[in-house]
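This part of the workshop introduces the protein records we will be handling. Each record describes a single protein and holds just a pair of labelled lines. Instead of coordinates, the fold is spelled out as a row of discrete tokens. To make this concrete, we reproduce a full record directly below:
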Amino acid sequence: MLSLRLAVLFIHVTSVIVALGASLFSTFALAPILAQELEPAARIRVLRRVIRRLGAIVLGALSVLVATGLLNVIFIGAVSVLLIAKLVLVAIVIVLA
């Protein structure tokens, strides 16, 4: 049972890294470079394509995050105020995406 819990936790943390990494990359690395290098019309076209692809990756990671988060709750057997706050934040992010 411990190895399953560790595997779920590993997948959970990995999905957080993927979701945050993709979001931070597009915001802080890609967007400023495109703003310097491309004309506004071309920049918008490229950003739309990148956001569409990264959006699918981020939404997939968020869905894995929610599923593994629920499994973690089952393993722990308790619901805390912090967990409820995190679930509300995840729901907001999914709605805004």
In short: Residues 40-76 form the longest helix (37 residues). The chain has three helices and no strands. The chain has a mean pLDDT of 88. Helices lie at 2-37, 40-76, 81-96.
